[in-house]
């Protein structure tokens, strides 16, 4: 059985996780680093920003209507 076939559940707090990572070999740390970089990429954030920018002009047409101003006037 290969290690990739194992299913292990660990309950660690952050500090315990850091200490466990310190015990990894250099190659294991590099592999973990690549995984973390992939998992924390800004792609999702960039997609949200691009969606916002793409829709801003369309939404602005409604935002600038007199009816919209009147609706928000009392808030």
Short description:
The chain is 68% helix and 0% strand. The chain is mainly α.
Explain what the structure shows.
The chain has helices at residues 14-22, 26-39, 43-63, 66-72. The protein is mostly helical. It folds into two domains: 9-41; 42-75, no CATH class. The radius of gyration is 24 Å and the shape is elongated.
Count of β-strands? 0
Low-confidence stretches: none
Percentage of residues in helical conformation: 55-70%
How far is it from the N-terminal to the C-terminal residue, by CA? 65 Å
Round the mean pLDDT to the nearest integer and report it.
82
Strand content: under 5%
Instruction: Give me the number of helical elements.
Output: 4
Please tell me how large the radius of gyration is. Answer: 24 Å
Largest sheet: none
N to C succession of SSEs: HHHH
Structural class: mainly alpha
Q: How many structural units, i.e. domains?
A: 2
Give the overall shape, derived from the CA principal axes: elongated
């Amino acid at each position: 059985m290969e290690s990739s076939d194992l299913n292990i559940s660990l309950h660690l707090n952050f500090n315990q996780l850091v200490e466990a990572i310190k015990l990894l070999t250099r190659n294991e740390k590099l592999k973990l680093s690549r995984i973390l970089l992939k998992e924390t990429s800004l792609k999702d954030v960039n997609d949200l920003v691009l969606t916002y920018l793409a829709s801003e002009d369309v939404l602005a047409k409604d935002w600038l209507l007199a009816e919209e101003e009147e609706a928000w006037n009392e808030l």
